[in-house]
Write a structure and sequence with these properties.
Layout: E1 4-7, H1 13-26, H2 38-44, H3 46-52, E2 54-60, E3 63-71, E4 85-93, H4 102-115, E5 120-125, H5 130-138, E6 142-143, E7 160-165
Parallel strand pairs: 4-5
Antiparallel strand pairs: 1-2, 2-3, 3-4, 5-7, 6-7
Helix pairs in contact: 1-2
């Protein structure tokens, strides 16, 4: 499958928002499990992310196949990045594009961006996202359990942390 990684354009936002929210919903990754989940709406809001970070898409023949949010060092959307680290958030690939290298290419594009300005890249992932873990590990990311965290206070839901030192 041939595709191009490029910055998201406003015309891409609705499609990418739908791909991202549906991927999380269909994969059972939302804490409350339906479209009423507050994070489902956050995932759909690509314009909000694009105003504060770099949103990249994988596109083929004017179709959006997936996307990712790249937060440069010090960016306001960073959840766990330390000074000097960039962060990757909200990686999602459309069902029909999975298994064709789209996710790995999106992550690699973020790493390439970080190389010029950051000392490392960090991301968090859910324990059940095994395909994503394999992508991260293939690209040299390592688990750092001491940086795992719970985004919902008082809840047992824990996100796993991976980092790549540049």
């Amino acid at each position: 499958m041939n595709f191009l990684i490029r910055p998201a354009e406003p015309a891409d936002y609705e499609t990418l928002g739908d791909i991202t929210a549906r991927a999380y919903l269909n994969d059972g990754l939302l804490a409350f499990g339906d479209e009423d989940d507050w994070y489902f709406q956050e995932l759909r809001n690509v314009a909000k992310r694009a105003a504060a970070a770099d949103v990249l898409v994988a596109a083929a023949d004017d179709r959006i196949l997936g996307g990712v949010t790249y937060v440069p060092s010090g960016g306001p959307l960073a959840e766990l990045a330390r000074p000097g680290e960039a962060e990757i958030r909200m990686l999602a690939v459309a069902d029909e594009a999975r298994g064709h290298g789209v996710g790995q290419s999106l992550v690699q594009a973020c790493v390439d961006r970080a190389t010029a300005t950051a000392t490392g890249v960090v991301l968090c992932t859910q324990p059940t996202m095994h395909s994503a873990h394999r992508i991260y590990e293939r690209l040299g990311f390592v688990r750092v359990p001491e940086r795992d965290w719970q985004p919902i206070p008082g809840d047992d839901f824990t996100l796993l942390t991976y980092e790549l030192t540049l």
